[in-house]
Specification:
The protein is an alpha+beta fold. The chain has seven helices and eight strands; from the N terminus they run ββααβαββαααββαβ.
Length: about 220
């Protein structure tokens, strides 16, 4: 496949394909795709190819051969069929920029202006929004209800030590509550300083990544 930057086919080579109910078979590499003339007519290059003006592409079995990567072509064909722009995004890896570049190059070769424009303007970046946040949770029971299908959560637990007040009389209700102690407690304490225990606390840093997809931006706007 050669670069065909900004090329336009002469109008004499872009006739409308004759309507047919028979599926059209496109051989891309070692993979076959079945589609219709209506879908292919949205590409000037493919429209000319199936019009039988380019016999060099037609195989003995009636299929048409395109020297391209099938994984790239399937994104182009999806756009031609449905008007859905390709969104090559993985939550773990992010956008597949190499795939976008390959799709744009093939779309340019096949003369599909709107797809080329959408990719060249990097509209796919607007279609995905990722927001990250973090919070420290002290109690395990507070972790419930933090997750949903669009949110990826990472937990980073760690132990830390806090000081907790100890009543001079050993009264449990006064533990970690110095205001609970009255005159009787102070009398036993005398001039001694307040006593504190080292108390282990499990703290969990919760990191959330919420991914939102704007499906409307991936749909071709009808004019």
């Amino acid at each position: 496949m050669s670069d065909n930057e900004g090329a336009q086919l002469p109008s004499s080579l872009v006739p409308s394909p004759q309507g047919t109910s028979e599926p059209i078979v496109i051989q891309v590499g070692e993979q076959r795709f079945y589609t219709s003339s209506d879908s292919l007519s949205r590409s000037d290059h493919l429209n000319a190819m199936i019009s039988c003006r380019w016999d060099s592409n037609k195989q003995p079995d009636g299929s048409y051969f395109i020297d391209a990567d099938p994984e790239v072509f399937k994104h182009v064909l999806q756009y031609l069929r449905l008007g859905v722009y390709p969104l090559c995004y993985d939550k773990a890896k992010g956008h597949d920029f190499a795939m976008y570049a390959s799709i744009q190059k093939l779309a340019n070769y096949l003369i599909i202006p709107k797809l080329v424009e959408w990719l060249s303007q990097r509209q796919y970046l607007e279609a995905v929004t990722v927001r990250t946040s973090g919070q420290v949770v002290e109690h395990v029971d507070k972790l419930d209800g933090l997750s949903d299908l669009s949110t990826e959560i990472q937990y980073h637990p760690t132990w830390r030590t806090v000081k907790k007040y100890v009543c001079p009389r050993g009264i449990f209700e006064h533990y970690d509550n110095p205001n609970g102690c009255g005159k009787a407690c102070r009398k036993i304490q005398g001039d001694a300083e307040n006593r504190y225990d080292d108390y282990p606390v499990l703290s969990t840093l919760v990191l959330t990544k919420k991914t939102t997809f704007n499906q409307q931006l991936c749909l071709e706007q009808q004019t």
